[in-house]
Specification:
Layout lengths: L2 H20 L14 H18 L6 E3 L14 E4 L5 E7 L4 E6 L2
Parallel strand pairs: 1-2
Antiparallel strand pairs: 2-3, 3-4
């Protein structure tokens, strides 16, 4: 097999693997203005979040009660609402405990 064939295979593999890899998004990184213990804690949490997503360790909570107004959340949090019509819900407002849900079919 030629070098060109190997390179084409690698590029095609990367293109096919890219959408599933970026399907799970991580939170926006915080802005660091000074270096102290809190900064390193935030940086460790951010790196752990990246590691969890890249290694498939991100799992959604499974709930059987409608999360809207009944479940506290942080913006961007995902839950799986397990009912007759299964839904994936994302928190859109932490202060109002507001969730938007879509059917998981």
């Amino acid at each position: 097999m030629s070098t060109r064939g190997v390179l084409v295979g690698i590029v095609v593999g990367m293109v096919l693997a890219a959408p599933p890899l970026w399907a799970l998004r991580t939170e926006r990184p915080p802005e660091f203005h000074e270096w102290n213990t809190n900064t390193f804690t935030q940086l460790n949490n951010l790196m752990l979040g990246f590691w969890n997503v890249l290694n498939g360790r991100y799992q959604m909570d499974r709930v059987s009660v409608d999360p809207d107004v009944s479940r506290p959340c942080s913006v961007g949090e995902l839950v799986y609402f397990d009912t007759d019509t299964d839904q994936v819900c994302v928190c859109v407002s932490a202060s109002a405990k507001q969730w938007n849900c879509w059917n998981a079919t």
